[in-house]
């Protein structure tokens, strides 16, 4: 349905995106992940025709979007990372305004507004001013605006940032339902790995402007199929213990986050006795040690050296 071919974007001396290629089949939900500054937003801006690439092309149904942008724009919905609503208008008034920009009018516009309000769960709040909405309600209305013209392809740039768990779950279920019932194709970026696990058929991981890996969730997890993730909880983080883990040649990665020490090591090596010995030597009290199968988050850390939220 859509293919980006060696997209590159140069801003003066900074190359934000460097020969990034990706594709979406009709009806897929595809995740685009990367730490902050990886080039995701610039890639999305080029795909959605907001900015032209320095080189490369975007093809929609085998036609160049660079040369014929209207063919994609007519069927594209974009949910931006920033809330793009008028706070002094009601939910219904916002939808009326943006609906007219989409060239909807009369009964068609009225019907679409009613349908969209139902989809995003705001029918009973349609006449309330947006400035009185919670963050989750604003996010849902932001999605509603992108759905007004019944797009076949929708780009969602971190649509759940900074909202409560209930609103977040509602949005995820809505995206899933739109994909299953309307066969809508979705390009989804997020700072929450569990969202990608729940929604996406395939994933692209970006870092420093490059697509560094792509595949299904299972294919990406298999990158670390020969290694185990070991999670260690201690009474308090002992620097000498952590340093000893870093210096152990068998351990390929050590991360410390929120009091949890996570290490990556080959499956065939039994590290437990080594861990207990290091803890004893450094007078570190271990409260739990758990061996887990590597997750998408582990692979992401392994490939980029940074957490998704960094």
Automatic annotation (TrEMBL):
GO MF annotation: an example: ATP binding
Superkingdom in the source lineage: Bacteria
Record domain ABC transporter: where: 2-233
Pfam family, one: ABC_tran
Coiled-coil residue windows: none
Keyword hit for Coiled coil: no
Protein name: ABC-2 type transport system ATP-binding protein
Keywords: ATP-binding, Nucleotide-binding
UniProt xrefs under InterPro entries: AAA+_ATPase, ABC_transporter-like_ATP-bd, ABC_transporter-like_CS, P-loop_NTPase
């Amino acid at each position: 349905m859509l293919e980006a071919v060696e997209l590159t974007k140069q801003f003066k001396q900074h190359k934000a995106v460097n020969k990034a290629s990706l594709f979406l089949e009709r009806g897929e939900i595809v995740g685009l992940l990367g730490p902050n500054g990886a080039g995701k937003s610039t890639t999305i801006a080029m795909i959605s025709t907001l900015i032209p690439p320095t080189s490369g092309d975007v093809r929609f149904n085998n036609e160049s979007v660079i040369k014929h942008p209207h063919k994609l724009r007519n069927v594209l919905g974009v949910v931006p990372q920033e809330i793009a609503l008028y706070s002094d208008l009601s939910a219904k008034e916002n939808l009326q305004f943006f609906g007219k920009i989409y060239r909807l009018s009369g009964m068609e516009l009225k019907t679409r507004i009613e349908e969209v309000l139902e989809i995003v769960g705001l029918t009973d709040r349609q006449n309330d001013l947006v400035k009185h909405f919670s963050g989750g309600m604003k996010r849902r209305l932001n999605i509603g605006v992108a759905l007004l013209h019944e797009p076949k392809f929708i780009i969602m740039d971190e649509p759940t940032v900074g909202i409560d768990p209930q609103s977040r779950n509602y949005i995820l279920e809505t995206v899933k339902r739109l994909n299953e019932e309307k066969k809508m194709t979705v390009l989804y970026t997020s700072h929450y790995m569990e969202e990608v696990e729940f929604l996406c058929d395939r994933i692209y991981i970006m870092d420093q402007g490059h697509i560094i890996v792509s595949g299904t969730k299972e294919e990406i997890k298999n990158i670390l199929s020969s290694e185990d993730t070991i999670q260690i909880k201690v009474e308090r983080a002992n620097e000498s213990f952590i340093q000893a883990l870093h210096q152990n040649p068998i351990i390929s990665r050590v991360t410390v986050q929120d009091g949890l020490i996570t290490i990556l090591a080959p499956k065939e090596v039994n590290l437990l006795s080594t861990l207990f010995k290091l803890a004893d030597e450094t007078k570190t009290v271990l409260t739990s040690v758990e061996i887990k199968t590597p997750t998408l988050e582990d692979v992401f850390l392994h490939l980029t050296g940074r957490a998704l939220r960094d």
